[in-house]
Amino acid sequence: MTRDLHPLIVGSGGAARALRMAMAFYPEALATPRLHRRGEPLPEADPERSLLVLANPHALHAPLLLEAAERGYRWALCEKPAAVDFGQIGTLESVADRGLECWICHGYRMLWGPQTLRSAWAEGRFGEVLSIEGRYWQAGAVRGPARPGWKDDPALGGPHDVLLDLGSHWTDLVIYLSGLAPRHTQARRWYVNAASPHRDSQVHITIEHTSPRDGSMVSFGSVSKTVHGAGNQLEVHILGEAATASWSFADPDIIVWGRGRERTTEARTAADPPARLAPFHGMGWLEGYASLVGDLVGHVVYGRPRRGPTLDEQIVVLRALLGAVDTVDT
């Protein structure tokens, strides 16, 4: 049986606009989204058709997901992070127990490059993997003074910035690529150029991952909003005994492979409309959002297997990062 979904968007910023554009790719399955004003109670749900879309401040995600579960919503799409502290993680666990199925907006893992690398890893093309290394750099903290926003209020943005904002993207990506859960996480945080004292501006994240063999796989990420001149520089390098591979969000339809002293390039050759256009005609951030919405539509409306980030996976990411809060600050 198919159904059309009725999205209700909470939020009015850039993420809300991107999600609204992403939903426009699926007019046959999604009604025109309605906007919901922050602070007002959610309307009662039609369990078969209501879709809650959260693109509001981070610290408000978990309470609204709980309210949605209590009001009978079955489907939700939520910006990351879905929680900002351990108390809210408990709320997410309660939401999962109530039967609300939620997609988290980690769109990078939905792009061709990471999906191809995950398949290559599963096929054993890297041999034993030593580490995943990379960076996620932006210049948001060095753009000069700005008016205070919701991220400057811990009640809305939570007690962290880069750790859970960009850091959750990085951590989700390395767990997705490897399929290996985090065993131990360290996070060294800096507050250089921070807009508010509580907002960390750069984090180095080191994760020891549980490995089927000897637990020796490690990931290293430099995650920052205070790199002068940076745009949205996300790079991933997988270092294995048999091969290495590198992928960059700036050139998302190419993977550079290394074997011995040789280097080759693998390029995407197929389109996957509507979310993924012809090779080298990518949509940047919007492609990840559109792929996530397409995964939700495919699962809920057409009964296809789900591939997108789950609430349980988000809890794993957040526990790893929040558990590292008491390590080293600079």
Based on the model shown, name its key terms:
five-stranded parallel β-sheet; alpha/beta; globular; 330 residues
Question: Can you walk through the features of this model?
Answer:
This protein has 330 residues and is an alpha/beta fold. It contains eight helices and 13 strands. The strands form two sheets. The chain has an eight-stranded mixed β-sheet, with helices on one face. The protein has a five-stranded parallel β-sheet with strand order 2-1-3-4-5, with helices on both faces. β1, α1 and β2 form a beta-alpha-beta unit. α2 packs parallel to α3 and α4 packs parallel to α6. The N and C termini lie far apart (55 Å). The mean pLDDT is 93.
Neighbour order of strands in the largest sheet:
7-8-9-6-10-11-12-13
* Largest pleated sheet: 8 strands, mixed
Radius of gyration: 20 Å
What's the number of extended β-strand segments? 13
Low-confidence stretches: none
Shape: globular
Q: What does the average pLDDT come to?
A: 93
Task: Give the helices and strands as they follow along the chain.
Answer: EHEEHEHEHEHHEEEEEEEHH
What count of helical segments does DSSP give?
8
Helical amount among residues, as a percent range?
Answer: 25-40%
Strand content: 15-25%
Report the end-to-end length measured between terminal Cα atoms: 55 Å
Structural class: alpha/beta
